[in-house]
Amino acid sequence: MTSSLPDELLQVFERSVTAEFATVDGRGQPIVWPVNPYYHHGEGCIDVTTALANPKKAYHAARNPHVALLFSDPTGSGLPDPPAVLVQGTAVVDDTDLEANRERYHRESAAKFPATQRMPVPAPLRRLLAWHYGRIYLHVRPERIFVWPHADPQAEPQLFDAHLEEVRSGHNEEAEGPHEPIEGGLDRWHPRLDELGREHRSAVLAIVAPDGFPFAARVPVRADRGAHVVRIETDPVGAPLEPGLACLCAHAHAPDLSWRRNFQVRGDLVEQDGGWVLHPHKVVHGIELPPESAIDRCRRTARRLSRSRRTAKAELARRATAPRR
Who's near 223: CB < 8 A, 6+ residues apart? Predict the structure, then answer.
């Protein structure tokens, strides 16, 4: 499908530093995190990776290959006025040759993010630290693409390989299923929610559409501590919003990825007073590298690496005993 797309969209795929990758877990909860996309002109897939130390994206995609990639943050891309692009597609998990994946990831990340290679790690050390550098690739084959000109969520989206009337009606006409029910909110307000509308004027809202694919859009948000909700300030055109489980991801990064911050909020999306609000029931911190002193960064990294090492080693041990596919 990508070979027939306008060059403007291919440039978004190739040059974007980050995209938001949405999956659906085993209980129907949409999950969305920022990732680094890799697209090479002429290829039919957009690739993303996840570390052995954080394999849940691969678990979710293996169980349910319906995924989505949203390109909504042009920071670092050099594109002056790119559209927001949502790619809904099917994912193939590529984890049969972790050594080849590790070397490929090193080549591709070095080419795309040269600033992160100021202190390159020698190949022997990368092999020794396989638990840290091991990568699982996910190849996303686009099936439906939504394009919002000028990244305006209130603009009518252009569609590729879909019927415009499906978007206007708020659902896909092919295979409609029930929305997951709401669950209830947090007992106590999480202080990080106060960043929404302050440090993060917008965030990515992900839901599961009636056809089973995740749907994600960047929307302006505002935390309302008094009401114990996060308010969705704009209803994006084309988004099949319904009450149910949702995920909101806020993230920011330097153009060269020298720092990055991100977290997500999982909760219940509810229509209220003519608009939409998210009742939070879980706040999850992502893998962050804030703009801070070298000492503070080393402390933060040491704590994270200890946890990551345990997760990756457990994953390698599981794979060593699992039957070959």
Answer: 193, 194, 195, 196, 197, 198, 230, 231
Structure tokens at 250: 């806020």
Domain containing 89 equals 2-321
Phi first, then psi: give them for residue 106, nearest 5 degrees: -60, -45
Say which residue the tokens 């009636």 belong to: 210
Query: Which tokens is 55 given?
Result: 């394999």
What 3-state DSSP class applies to 62? helix
- Residue 11 CA to chain centroid, in angstroms? 19
Alpha-carbon distance 181 to 29, whole Å? 10
pTM of the model: 0.87
Distance between CA atoms of residues 67 and 283, nearest Å: 22
Reading the chain (325 residues) residue by residue, the pLDDT tens digits are 777 899 999 999 999 999 999 999 999 999 999 999 999 888 889 999 998 888 999 999 999 999 999 999 999 999 999 999 999 999 999 999 988 998 999 899 988 888 766 656 666 656 666 666 789 999 999 999 999 999 999 999 999 974 444 434 444 444 444 445 555 567 789 999 999 999 999 999 999 999 999 999 999 999 999 999 999 999 999 999 999 999 999 999 999 988 899 999 999 999 998 999 999 999 999 888 777 776 666 666 666 666 777 777 777 777 777 765 5
Overall domain count for the chain: 1
Q: What is the bridge-based pairing of β-strands 84-94 and 46-51?
A: unpaired
190: how many CB neighbours lie within 10 A of its CB? 13
Q: CATH number for the domain including 89? A: 2.30.110.10
